Amino acid sequence: MRTTCLKPNSLTNKHKLLFAMTSTPDHIQLKVQISRLDLLFKQSLPTILVSLVVVSLAAFGLKDRVASDVLSLWLGSVVSLSVIRALFLIAYILIKPEGVTILKWERPYFITLMAPVAAWGIGGAWAAHDAEAASRFLILFFLFGMAGGAQGAYSSVRYILLSCVYTLLLPITILMLLSGSRIELYAALGSLLYAVTVLRNSALIHDAMTDARSLQFQLADEKSKVERLAMYDFLTGLHNRRAFEELAGATLKASRFQQRQCQLLMIDVDHFKSVNDRYGHATGDIVLKRVAATLNKLIRETDLSARFGGEEFIVFLPNAKRTTAVETAERIRKSIEQLDIKSEGESIRVTISIGVSGDSYDLNQLLGEADRALYQSKRDGRNRVTIAD
After folding, report:
1. Which fold, 3-12+235-388?
2. Position with higher pLDDT, 16 vs 79
3. Which residues have a catalytic role annotated?
4. Residue spans per domain, the chain
5. Which one of 204, 220, 235, 249 has the fewest CB atoms closer than 10 angstroms to its CB?
6. What is the reported pTM?
């Protein structure tokens, strides 16, 4: 069919509607797991600085109470392993993993955490083994401080918190239980009581944080679903008229500033009422879906397609010349003409009429000119492209 001319009287990528996305328990649980781990990474560097401060305090407080070689080896191993952990955390910050990729960092996170924690706990018990009672209490004091810090930093992931607390406290607690000293026995029992308390409280905190984050993600998913419903046409998955006008209007403003041409195609399915009357509305819906799918397949990623109402569609082409718009329109028209749509054993052939407008930064003007060109195509026999000058 021929193309005729009628005399006159930043757009985002194409969106595909995913109505099937729902807030399933597994989906929410995965989001909670990812958010917890990301939170741990973000708050871990300060804990290393605190640990190094405690190392300095321990070195100063124990320098005349514990053998220098033992103290140096103990605290030196803590510092070395903490530096390695800091480098690992910096790598995470620089790489910035997203989504499920973050979960791949969980095991190395745990390993790099437990290495300095084990150095603290096991090394502390070793340093306390041959030390006097006062030194043991001082070491226990430092380890209790580290355990308290761990409770504040790692409470979002229970197994990490419990691993840290027990690794820090159990070695020296066992040592003091076996010391034979009544006062050390009491201190060890207090340490065990604290460990039991952490076991119970960590479960409560874990459940509370899980429920809060799950609710947060459920609400976010529901909000996103509502926003998608407000932006897209349910039947075809294309943008609806409201979304089109907002997106196209914003792009026209940017195009005016950048002095870039924009074009618009107004598309109408020929004799669509006859399709509905003869084959039923269910078949008519299939026709609209096939037309919409063809539009999305043939336009550029930067173009915007929408269902404008009923059997009418619209395509907005930013940063495009008139020749590009006409070529796109003809490609769409020919592809629709060749569609073979089946209904109850019958083949349905449909055609479209297209009106093209452009070279304006006023959306209402583009729509008006394209609409007049579209009706000229229909008056001239349909299944054709008409350009509004």
Report:
1. Alpha-Beta Plaits (3.30.70)
2. 79
3. 311
4. 3-12+235-388, 25-227
5. 204
6. 0.55
